[in-house]
Each structure stands twice: as C-alpha cells, then as structure tokens.
Amino acid sequence: xxxxxxxxxxxxxxxxxxxxxxxxxxxxxxxxxxxxxxxxxxxxxxxxxxxxxxxxxxxxxxxxxxxxxxxxxxxxxxxxxxxxxxxxxxxxxxxxxxxxxxxxxxxxxxxxxxxxxxxxxxxxxxxxxxxxxxxxxxxxxxxxxxxxxxxxxxxxxxxxxxxxxxxxxxxxxxxxxxxxxxxxxxxxxxxxxxxxxxxxxxxxxxxxxxxxxxxxxxxxxxxxxxxxxxxxxxxxxxxxxxxxxxxxxxxxxxxxxx
Length: 258
Ligand SMILES: *[C@@H]1O[C@H](CO)[C@@H](O)[C@H](O)[C@H]1NC(C)=O
Ligand SMILES: *[C@@H]1O[C@H](CO)[C@@H](O)[C@H](O)[C@H]1NC(C)=O
Ligand SMILES: *[C@@H]1O[C@H](CO)[C@@H](O)[C@H](O)[C@H]1NC(C)=O
Ligand SMILES: *[C@@H]1O[C@H](CO)[C@@H](O)[C@H](O)[C@H]1NC(C)=O
Ligand SMILES: *[C@@H]1O[C@H](CO)[C@@H](O)[C@H](O)[C@H]1NC(C)=O
Known about the structure:
Elements: E1 2-12, E2 16-25, E3 32-33, H1 40-49, E4 55-59, E5 62-66, E6 73-76, E7 84-90, E8 111-117, E9 125-134, E10 137-146, E11 153-158, E12 161-170, H2 180-188, E13 194-195, H3 201-216, E14 226-228, E15 232-233, H4 235-238, E16 252-253
Parallel strand pairs: 1-14
Antiparallel strand pairs: 1-12, 1-13, 2-6, 2-7, 3-5, 4-5, 4-7, 6-10, 8-9, 9-10, 11-12, 15-16
The chain binds 2-acetamido-2-deoxy-beta-D-glucopyranose (5 copies).
Residues 30-32, 67, 69-70 line the site of one 2-acetamido-2-deoxy-beta-D-glucopyranose.
C-alpha cells in the first residue's frame, strides 16, 4: 500500500472589510454579546477578527455580534436615531473606494461576503452570503458548503490562494514502481491536481495529522506504506543547501521523500 499527496481545487481568498452604517437588526435576530468590547471601535474590530461574525451592532453602547444562522434582516435607521451596525463584506476593489447610496449595497448593488468556519479535520464550512437592499431593509441570503470536497481533504492557506489537499491511496507494490512521474500523472488524472509537499512546519503538521487519521480510519493497513511528497528548496537555498539557515522548516519548500 502506498500513497501520494496531491492538491485539488483552488480558490482566491477575498479580503473582507467592515462597513459601518445606521441600522438595527430585525427583532427576530439572535445576538451574541461581547462584554469585553467596551467601545464601538473594539466591537467592530472583534467582529472583523471573529471568523463566525458577519455583523456587529452597537446596542446602546453594548457590543452585539451575529452569526449567519441568527440574522436575516437589518433595518436602515437615520443618523438621528444614532443606531449603528457594521457589515462584514468582501473588499470591493483593489484600487478605488466605492461610492453610492446605502452602503454596503452601493446604489442597489448586492454586497457579498464569505465566512470560513472551522469544521472537523481541517475542512471548514464555507458560508457565502449576499446582502440585498430593498426599501429600507437589508436582507441576507446564505449558501453553505464544505470548503473541500470531503473530510479526506485539508484546506491550506498559501498566500492569497486556498488549496484543498488530500492523499491518494494506491495498492501498488513493490514501492519502487511508484515513481515520481507516476505520481504526477496520478495527480493530473484527479481533476488536474498537482503533487505537493509542505511549504512550512504548520503544513507538515497537517499532513502528519491527516496520515494518522487515515491510519485510525483503517483507510491504509497498519503494517507498511510509502508516502511521496513533492518538494524543492527555495531559490535562495538552492545554491547553499547545507548552511544552517537552509536546514530549517522555514526555508524548505517541503522535503522530497519516498
Ligand atoms: C446562533 O446560531 C447558532 C447555531 O444555530 C447557535 O448555536 C447559537 O446559540 C445562536 N446564537 C444565539 C445568540 O442564539
Ligand atoms: C472576555 O474576556 C474573558 C477574559 O479575558 C475571556 O475569557 C472571554 O472569552 C472574553 N469574551 C469574549 C466574548 O471575547
Ligand atoms: C483591499 O484590497 C486591496 C488590494 O488587494 C488592498 O490593498 C487593501 O488593503 C484592501 N483593503 C483592506 C481594508 O483590506
Ligand atoms: C463563494 O465565494 C467565493 C469567494 O468570493 C467564490 O470564489 C465562490 O465561487 C463562491 N461560491 C459560491 C457557491 O457562490
Ligand atoms: C472532479 O470534479 C467533478 C466536478 O466537480 C466531481 O464531480 C468529481 O468527483 C471530481 N473527481 C475527483 C476525482 O475529484
């Protein structure tokens, strides 16, 4: 029994921003409280950092925040009413500030957001939401699915791209028949995935956890297996691979192992 690691679908990560406007959650909404956020600024910051939060509300100085199951509507209020909400939405533009009436739905354009909510086995729930504005009310609609196809994948964040990584298991023996080229071809046959390694120590830990899950789930026999990970040294370390600084996890792009 042998494995190889491969990558599947990739997604661009969208930065989010908080947009503060006058508004009030519908009375049917279920608020979470954060008594630690003692100012509105802290409340907005808390929501921006809390992965499950999509709206913060200044309820007479108390910090309230909302998860996607618990809110569908926000009523627009006036400046005089002094009620404030902060919507978490995708960063609109790389170059210019948006303008128009009734932000975050500038001039009746739907606003969008994405939450990645940690799940089991490093396969988070991805909640995509749309905010529509109609006659003084913003309404949320939600679409929820796992970020990766199954729990046999883990999600890796590499710069601004997310990768779903999994292990391909084949019963080939002897292990020597399991060449690098065969591994590349096997990955390519899985919806154009690519053979990969670990780009840092945290990814190595995820790979190790995934292998022990596969063992405990009985997906591979206990007696023996081989594992192929792809990898190469960073450009800077290719010339001086044996220096101390090039022998750490931080500077290797994953190790080549059979
Ligand atoms: C929000 O919804 C989640 C999931 O349904 C639930 O666990 C949580 O208690 C709710 N929060 C409030 C404040 O009701
Ligand atoms: C508030 O602070 C306490 C103590 O630091 C902490 O245990 C608690 O989790 C915090 N609550 C929130 C909602 O951040
Ligand atoms: C929005 O995206 C642009 C381009 O990626 C970036 O320069 C800017 O800092 C982002 N804004 C925020 C608040 O993240
Ligand atoms: C969810 O949002 C992400 C980021 O904007 C996007 O790439 C993806 O296609 C969306 N998924 C669905 C099902 O709308
Ligand atoms: C390839 O992608 C299709 C469509 O997204 C999916 O139905 C199928 O299960 C994928 N195959 C593999 C091997 O991941």
